[in-house]
Amino acid sequence: MPHREELTEFTPEQYPPFPDSPEFSSVQLETISLQKLIDHDTTEEDRVFEACKGRGFFYLDLAGPESGETILKGAGEIAQVGERFMALPTDEKMRFTPKNKELFGYKMSGATKVDADGNRDNAEFFNISKNDMIIPNDKMLRPWPQNVMDAKPLFARYSKSAHSIGMLVMDVLARQLGIDPEEITSRHKIEEHAGDHVRITRGPPRKTIEMPEIQTPSHTDFGTITVLMNWLGGLQVWSESSRKLGALEPDVPGEWLWVKPKRGHAIINLGDAAVKFTNGVLCSGRHRVIPSPAEQGKWPRYSIVYFVRPVDHCKLKTLKGKGVPPADDMDEEAVEAKEWIYHQAKGLGSTNIDDK
Ligand SMILES: O=C(O)CCC(=O)C(=O)O
Ligand SMILES: [Fe+2]
Fold first, then answer.
1. Which domain holds residue 73?
2. Which of 1, 251, 294, 298 is 20 to 30 A distant from 315 in Cα terms?
3. Ligand 1 pocket check for 281: Cβ under 6 Å
4. Is the pLDDT of residue 112 over 90?
5. Quick count: other Cβ atoms within 10 Å of Cβ 191?
6. Backbone region of residue 351 per phi and psi (left: phi > 0; alpha: psi in -120 to 50; beta: other values)
7. For the chain, what is the mean pLDDT?
8. 230 within ligand 1 shell (Cβ under 6 A)
9. Does residue 194 lie in a domain region?
10. Ligand 1 pocket, 221 CB below 6 A?
11. Does ligand 1 come within 6 angstroms of the Cβ of 305?
12. Which superkingdom (predicted)?
C-alpha cells in the first residue's frame, strides 16, 4: 500500500478559498446545529423544517456529537481511500461496474449523458454499499477492491453515523408533519438491504476558464436524504425550487447558484423519496457539479456523499399525516423502493447501470 506521502491529489490544507467575486454568486443556506437537533431544541427543529420545505438544502454544523465528529474526520479519510482507488488502472476499476439494477460500484467518466445533445459527464465515482460494509466479509453480496476492504471499519462507522444523522432530520420532519415516525424508521432500517451507499467522486482539474464541462449533470437525488462533504466549490443549486421529479433540465426559470463549501459542516439535502412520502411538501433541490471556480479549479475535486435511501422492499408512497395533502397513492399497492430508484437513475441518463 502506498505511503501517505504518495497521496498528492486530496490536499484540503492547500486549497485556496472560494473566490470572493460577484461573478460567482452563491446561495444563502441556513446553518443548522446537529447538537441542537440531538437536544430537541424546538427553534432548531422549526428552522430545519422551514429549510426542507423551501430549498431542501442546508448546512449542518457537525461539531460536538460523536456522529458529527465521525463524519468530519471520516470524510477526509475516505477521500484518501478514494485517491488510491482512482489511481488504479482503468481495467482494474472497470472490474467493479454496477450489476443487478443496483448503483454500487464504479462509474467511469463519460458514462452519463448531461444534456439532450448527448454530451457526457467528466467525473468518475465509486459507490460503496452500506450493507456490505456493516456485515461480516463472508456475507457480503459483491467483491470490493482491496483498499476498500482495508478500510471496511471506517466505511461501517461512517455509514452508521451518516444514516443516523439523516434519520434524526427525518424524524424531526415526520413529527412536524404529523406522520407517525415509525412509518419513516421502518422504511430505513440500517440492517435491511437498501440502495444506501457512500459515493466517492473525483472530478478532474478544470481545463479552461470558460469551464464548459459538467462533472455531475443537473439532478435531484433519488433517495430520502443526503449527507454531503466537499472541500472545493463546484456544487450549484437551481435558484428556484421545483417539486417535479425526473427531468434533466430545470423546469422553472432561474439560474445556477454556487454552494460554498463550509469547513466543519456537511451539506444536507433531501431526495425524491422525501418528496414522494410527503406529497411534495418537502423539496428535493435540483443541483449539479461543474469544475471548481477560479484558482480552486487547479485541483482535482473530491466529494464524499452518503445517500440514505428507503429499504429495497418497502413501498414508496405518500404517508399519512395532518401536514401531508392526501394523494391518490396513499392506500393503493405502491412500487417498491429498489425498482423506483432504478427507474429514477435510468431516467437521468445513466448508462452504467445494468439490470443483470
Ligand atoms: O460533489 C458534490 O458536491 C455533489 C455530488 C452530488 O450531487 C451527487 O453525487 O449526487
Ligand atoms: Fe446529488
1. 12-347
2. 251
3. no
4. no
5. 10
6. alpha
7. 91
8. yes
9. yes
10. yes
11. yes
12. Eukaryota
